[in-house]
Amino acid sequence: MKISEQWLRQWVNPNLNSEALGEQLTMLGLEIDDRYALAKPCSGVVVGEVITVEPHPDADKLRITSVDVAADVPLQIVCGAPNVRVGMKAPVATIGAVLPTDDGKGFKIKKSKLRGVESQGMLCGASEIDLPDVIDGLLELPETAPVGTDIREYLGLDNQVFDISITPNRGDCFSVRGIARELAVVNEMDWNTPDIEPVQITTAAKQAVKVQADEQCPRYFAQPVSNINRDIVTPKWMLDALLQSGLRSHNFLVDVTNYVLLELGQPLHAFDADKIVGDIVVRLANQGEQLQLLNEQNIILQGDELVIADDEGILALAGIMGGLRSSVSDSTTNIVLESAFFAPLAVAGKARRFGLHTDASQRFERGVDFELPELALQRAVGLLTDIAQGQAGEVTVVENTQQLPNRSAIKLAKNKVNDVIGIDIDQATIEGILTRLGLVVEDQGEQFVCIPPSWRFDLSIAEDLVEEVARVYGYDNLPSLRPSLQVDMRYDDTADLTMRLKLALVEAGYMEAVSFSFSDAKLEALLEDEALGQLLPLANPISADLAVMRRTLLSSLLPCVQYNLNRQQPRVRFFETGLSFVGANVSELVQTPSIALVATGTVNPEQAYDNHVMDFFDLKHDVEQLIPVHIDKKQLSYRRSQLAFLHPGQSADMLIDGEVVGWLGQLHPTVAKKLDLPATWVAQLSLSPLLSLLRQSHAIKTPSKFPQIRRDIALLVDANIEIQTLSDTIQEVGGKLLNQHWLFDVYQGEHTAEGIRSLAFALIWQDSTQTLSDDDVKTAMDQVIAALQSRHGAQLRDG
User: Fold this and answer.
1) pLDDT at 699
2) Domain total for the chain?
3) Scanning 73, 186, 378, 535, which has the fewest C-beta atoms within 10 Å of its C-beta?
4) 69/253 Cα distance (integer angstroms)
5) Domain range for residue 645?
6) CA–CA separation, 658 and 625 (whole Å)
């Protein structure tokens, strides 16, 4: 919003220069985007009156004029402006005057000759003194302009214009009145308001009004003004105020409504009274109704817009723009002036729906003072009757006070201001600030009970009042204090430990991927399994292929593999850390921090000697890089995985201390084929148990100085018995002397019976306190063999 400093100082005039005034407004929350003078500096330009106009003897388009500038003798000036005439007043640049130029150096006026005739200065158009050209020719000044007066003084060209950025919550500051009120509050001074009184009724004209939508329009004023003198031009003081605020002059009727809008902040609308048929009706539009607006735009209404209508149809889109049918023209002498309070929600969004943005909609959708319509109407009608001799008719008022905004009391604990701001502000100062802001303040001992004024829609809770106190007290008056740190200094090592896991995979040749937590529902359907839980769809997905929350990180990684394979990258190895989401709705949603791997192609980059394709044990090796080296391998075990999207013979669940922490294996060939993928190896582990392992403290054990004894055992067992089951039995029965064991041979074929396979385990025996004897080892081995035979039906293999 642009506002003239000169106009503002007519309302309130603090002892501050322009720069300090702009700084004060900014600190009040009314940020100054720009501050500039009306025109660039110039000198030697005065008001002149043309006395004579004679044709130039050698040029058809030039005139020889004599111009009175209140000097001893008139000046002879050659002029080519088409509008020069006897009796007109215009700016005159005298000899030695300096006119503004774009480069800032200025253009100096010298005595010269034009086609042989001496010219003692220059008659100026608007652009010569850095004002916008409205007409082609000289800048015509009012007849009352005093001859010889410095043009900068007369036109107020040194006046500053403030371009103020008004935040959406401060609709009350979209006017000179609103900004002046703020300055009066912060400077603790009175402000000068115009003397606005009800206008005497001089005609019996009255406009009937019906309000059918009183929720959207709880207060509506209408007053006819008849027999307006249309020969009246807009007074200079009003014209200057409009132009300096960035509004063009249209005609006197429109200029009056725009002036009151800028002065008081109340949008008004003038209807041509002779074009209204019957009563004015304030109602909601009917779906499909059409309206041609003042800008000649035709719109089709949807049925939720508030409109002003008569017996023939719609006259205006309420609070936004009038219709062309009832618009005033240069010949209009009888009008009906509308001044109303339209609820913000009735206007909000409607202007943008039709690609409109008007001064009225800008204010109404933010909230206009609901006590202002009557005052603004009196101001506008007073200007019309005083300046244009209009005759005021009777005022029609339709209102439903029950629908006006409720000014609910706000309770503000006296200590809350100081607690929030952090300094001790005197209670009397707090009460004074709130009172000057227009609130009705009642002291109830431990608290203030405050009722906001009608123009402050943004005050509803105690924190709003605290902000007002800080704003008016002055942010720059608040001392700089070091914050009181109340920090829990306990170190959270989650990020560091997660980085250790990531680096382990990087060292194994994987690259980190970062992807969306959203997934394609079709891909989730391919990875369906009861163990994964229910799928959570998004209420408002950003795209069709990101419509659900991922239940496994594979949903994010597999598309990355596809993308790279399609770009001739045959060896792909990715990992990702993030959340997996399980639950049919938000209240049941379980979010699990996880780490996932995906790999396809050869184990190593292409080379001469080792290009073998990745298999299950290569994947298992990579996954075990995430397991700390210090943990007891007895804690780690595997079992066959039952997940439907994994290969049933090449997949496993990983267990730590008997609890499943994740899975690994080959993607089921059927799923891989549907995704157009080769053999693809995948794994996912929960992060929490891995981090717990990393956090475990471990004692350093001194290696035993006594020798190890190795014994191998070859068994024939039922092929359906899991190797892990046999391993668990060996570990359990072997006891403390069994240092470690592993499977080193598997055979199933023509030399074994059908359904039987041969397994060979290596067992390492060692004591940390003494050398083991053969008898000790034999006793322990016999116990292991007996347990395998009794529990699993194992038989020792001959040879």
Assistant:
1) 67
2) 6
3) 73
4) 34
5) 494-695
6) 19
